[in-house]
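sorry for the late reply, my laptop died twice this morning and i had to redo everyting from scratch. anyway the thing you sent over, i finally got around to it. pasting the sequence first so we're on the same page, its 260 residues, then the predicted structure underneath. double check i copied it right bc i was rushing
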Amino acid sequence: MKKIYILSDMEGISGIRRSEQVQSSSPEYEEGRKLMMADINAAIEGAFDAGADEVVACDTHGGGGQVRIGEMDSRAMYETPGGGKLLPALDETFSGVVLLGHHARAGTLNGFLDHTMSSAHWFRYTLNGQEMGEIGIEAAYAGHFGVPVIAVSGDRALADEAIELFGRVECAVVKWALGRNRARCLPHGKGLAVIKETVKKAVEHADSFEPFKPEAPAVMQLTLYRSDMADELAKRPDVVRIDARTVQKNVASLADAWIW
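ok and here's the structure:
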């Protein structure tokens, strides 16, 4: 049985080219949601065309809630993050994870809306000394269950980061950043076609990908933008202060490599 998990963020969605489209307070946000739904449905279609038996979709942007459930492909199931789990339904029975609409890690040159977890707080994150962004954290979580990331979609910088981290991964490049806050995008229909075909190809060969499994127990380090942000985290009993803006935490499992 082939089960696929699609985790969607918003910054890397095809057609999203301005920061206002991912901000719930902006009039452009509803357009962003519409574009996101189209990408999710393209990915679901690609997965089922490749023989998937079950697909679970989850949107993680801002804690979830962007999905227009009535517009989603009815063959898939939908969930939101929560319950102390990064990808709640994910377990050892899944064949692969698709990281849809994602972005490059904080500090990436020409990465559209680059950040790691929190654009307001997180400056740099490392796991066992290796710097990574959200796709690395999510892939390590999936790796805990032995599930590989088989495909990603987003801008060129995101694809380059995925290849650097995972080696073999299918990449749907749907935009190219012009600095941090603007992007040049494929025409929407073409972007959807690229996503559908990329996911289809990945799912067809899902059993040939390797999970991303950093060594565990693992050491996390997080550098914040300001020292007072580190002050708050350093009060926790399992967190060690490294310097003014950096804290460290040891975790027994990769499933906890996102929890501070």
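The chain has a mean pLDDT of 96.
thats about all i looked at so far, will dig more tmrw
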